[in-house]
Amino acid sequence: MDGQDAQVQLKVQEKAPVDWAAIDPHHTLVLENRHINNFLKTTVDTKWSVRWNLGLTKLIEIVLNGVAW
Amino acid sequence: MTMRKIRFRRYATWLIVLAAAAIISGVWKAEQQNHQPAVGTEPYLTVQGNTANEMATPAPEIPQTPEPLSQRVVEYHMSVTLDATKMRLQGSQNLTWKNPGTVPVKELYFHLYPNAFESKQSTFMKESGGQLRNDKAKADSFGHMRVLSVKTVQGDDLLSRMSFVQPDDGNKNDHTLMKLVLPTAVLPGEQVTLLTQFEVAMPAAFARMGYVGDYVMAGQWYPKLAVYEPKGVRGRTEEGWNLHQYHGNSEFYADFGIFDVVIKVPAGDIVAATGFPTQQPVVSGDVKTYHFYADDVHDFAWAASPHFVYHEEPFSAPNVPGVKIKLYLDPKQQDLKDRYLAAAKKSLTRYSQWYGEYPYSTLSIVVPPPGGNGTGGMEYPTLITAWDATEANPGLDLERVVVHEIGHQYWYGMVASNEFEEAWLDEGFTSYSEDRVMAEEYGNASNLPIEASYITDPAALRQNAWDYNTRGEYADNVYTKAKLALTAIERQVGAQTMNKVLRTYFQRWKFRHPSTEDFQKVLQDVTKADWATFFDQYVYGGLMVDYSIESIHSQPVTVDGKPLVESTIVVQKHGGTAGTVPIEMHLSDGSTVVRMWTVRMRRCS
User: Fold this and answer.
1) ipTM for the predicted complex
2) Of A39, B17, B473, B557, which is most buried by a Cβ count within 10 Å?
3) Which domains does chain B carry?
């Protein structure tokens, strides 16, 4: 893998499939400003994902209201 | 200048309360050992025969530093009288400028910064919309500076040789930069002295200067000579003046020298100023006269109020030979003395330990009265302003602004970068340093991922302050993105090496005017690595880091006869290159695999 490339394909061979992946989950890349695309999940239960999304949206709204400046 | 006062207020109120309680209790205990209560009067250096009337003349008995720390290009002897009923200043200036270049110079240029506030048509007001940070210019409040006379020491009147210039935008309604054509050129190494009379109308507190009631903050209050940059300074290929108007998104740039200033105020006023007082203030009738002196500084600011509650405390540390911390509190916050003093001591101790000696004998902290935030959160050589005293018991904002502005004593005060053209060199470096002090001394670490997410319009760090599209874009970049860029460098080279980088940069460039390239060279010298790609992307370019996971696909495979699952994860780079990108993959059986996408640094040849 050459970090200068624009894209990289990672292949892992394991007993189980990857069900989600995250870039830099511990925030070591301090100049990363769009964390929203750092995470991808393969399969999503529709019913729960909608609820999670709504719940998260509400949570983010509450937090952002609190830190508005 | 500190950019924002409140970020996480409601979100973190309980944290701040807890932290403040811990700090007050912990710091109180620690400070008891060093604390020496303020004495009633300052031990002024007495200058015999120096009266209020001798304003525009050098004070011969003022102690001189044996070895000048800077190339003293300018020497100002000034006298200013505050008319507190009209909030006007009457000033006279005796200025000597020494040509530091190699060719004769026929023209001088002066910044008349208060003219930014003379109308809504000035470049500053048009660009800012009359707002800076959260502070708005009062609709009916204007300010200005009038040059009443300019003469040579021989008495030749130069007023007709004066004109306003607008090199940045051609706005003829902008009178913040004045050109003066001299009768005879100043030869290299020679000097010229001019005698100037001027008047300043102070606006209601806004954009670093002005008044609130009977409090007055005089920043940028005198005709201030521009910087003549010799060849080689900041990469100049030909020597010349560095000329810009006063912009909505811009601070300042000036040359080092000597300031000898007499300040006359109403008898009941207390004055804070850059440098140190040369004698006890003298009261004569309704007028009180102060006399201050400072050398190896590039600006002089002062503040006056009859309500200041004054404290002073001597302080020294391994790299602080001896400084008097002078605190000018608002009565509403007089119980917070120890918090201000503790923040100042911690800052001085840390910065001097990390970067180098604090060589000045004073550090003054002015707390503006409620409503005075337009003048708050600002740095001047050896004098800073905190946030105004609106809150009787503020959270850690109190400490953070003191820590920030004292950081500017290093990144602006001594390492005097050009704030017009490369604001990140002072604001970014100061924000980075401030974060370190706040984390190490107060356990109050900034939430960098959240701060990074605020940067919605990343831009190049090295560009003119007014070339950013909005105030927010300016602030997000020169404060936050710059701080993050320095933190990214630190993460790559390690904290110890980063400290060596900044120390080397300070030691190499103190009392001079470095450029972004000069810092890059220090970084490359110390780390022995090539940082061109990093700088091209994040400093000279407008990139941030932005990686995304585009897809995840899994399919069954057989490896050595065993059934396995091969998962393919596509990671896309949208922004600049990061040193090492960790990618964590979670398998459906609960296990985790981590891979690193790494780019190697090139070594300098």
Assistant:
1) 0.85
2) B473
3) 36-306 (2.60.40.1730), 415-539 (1.10.390.10), 547-598 (no CATH)
